[in-house]
Write a structure and sequence with these properties.
The chain has 297 residues and is of the alpha/beta class. The protein contains 12 helices and 4 strands. It has a 4-stranded mixed sheet. Helix 4 packs across helix 5 and helix 7 packs antiparallel against helix 11. The longest helix has 29 residues. It is elongated, with a radius of gyration of 27 Å. The two termini are 28 Å apart.
Length: 297
């Protein structure tokens, strides 16, 4: 079920005795929409200890005091698609489960698993749904990827951001260090040029190409820090690998011995070395302990 901007009612149990009212904000209209899921309260109690406490007649929650025929419970802040997915599992509606989830859907599902203590409910499908994400190394850590801190182990979001900054800073540092070599040539008495003549002219030409290419990916004027870079680590590495220097015919017209003078080969070699290295981990010992506890459920 995709949010449509209109209130929707979904029957998970045609004879259900409980109506879940799930509010979400429509991203296009910015209007708060309430979807209704008709469910079995007994199934809800079996699926989650949190829901059991919420619906227990002897409990203190407002929802537990409602004994009317048209019983309602309001859930705030839950992603409606992720919640519907969980409710389908709890009500044995397996035929309507998706075959795969994208990374944002996995984030929302993880939120609910931690919030309602329902890891054991979704465990049989986790491996299948996570499999497509196995090749997304370096893609998930970018500024638009957000998740509520309320449902994360303490410090996890901060350590993930720190790991992302570390990898991006390493890539940017490699780029700007190479650029600095061209900028300082020949004032420091050395040349980057590999040719046998015209070294100063060659380095100046490459420097101009380098700056022009960095402007295309908004890294010039620089240096640009990792905190202001929005895209993922993988996107940044790909951007560096797509940079070009002067055309081959221009090198030929300039003279022999300058075929290897373009900045691109040196930069791509360094970028690929960094990208292929083991990624910094945002997982702390406290997070591992949290995941170990979840795995026992």
């Amino acid at each position: 079920m995709e949010p449509t901007g209109e209130p929707t009612t979904v029957y998970l149990d045609p004879s259900g005795d409980l109506r879940l009212l799930v509010e979400y904000e429509d991203k296009q209209t910015l209007i708060t929409v309430t979807n209704t899921f008709v469910v079995s309260s007994q199934v809800m109690c079996l699926a989650s200890p949190v829901w059991r406490a919420m619906l227990d007649p002897n409990g203190h929650f407002m929802e537990a005091q409602d004994t009317s025929k048209d019983r309602k419970a309001r859930l705030l802040g839950d992603d409606p698609n992720a919640l519907l997915l969980v409710l389908r599992i709890a009500h044995l509606d397996f035929k309507n489960l998706p075959s795969k989830l994208d990374d944002q859907e996995v984030w929302h599902l993880a939120d609910l698993c931690d919030k309602y203590d329902i890891v054991k409910l979704v465990r049989p499908w986790i491996t299948k749904w996570m499999q497509p994400m196995g090749s997304k190394s370096g893609e998930l850590l970018h500024k638009e990827r957000t998740v509520s801190e309320d449902f994360l182990p303490p410090g996890l979001q901060e350590s993930i951001i720190a790991a992302r900054h570390q990898r991006i800073a390493t890539l940017l540092d490699a780029c700007y260090k190479l650029l600095a070599r061209y900028e300082s040539s020949p004032s420091d008495g050395t040349y980057v040029c590999c040719g046998r003549r015209g070294e100063a002219e060659c380095d100046s030409m490459v420097l101009g190409c380098f700056i022009k290419e960095l402007k295309k990916i908004k890294l010039w004027p620089g240096p640009v820090g990792p905190c202001t870079f929005d895209s993922s680590v993988k996107t940044l590495a790909a951007s560096f690998n797509e940079l070009t220097c002067f055309p081959d015919q221009e090198v030929r017209s300039y003279g022999r011995g300058h075929y290897d003078c373009a900045f691109t080969s040196s930069l791509q070699k360094e970028v690929n070395y960094i990208a292929d290295a083991k990624e910094p981990s945002g997982v702390l010992d406290s997070h591992r302990e949290h995941m170990e506890e979840q795995s026992k459920k």
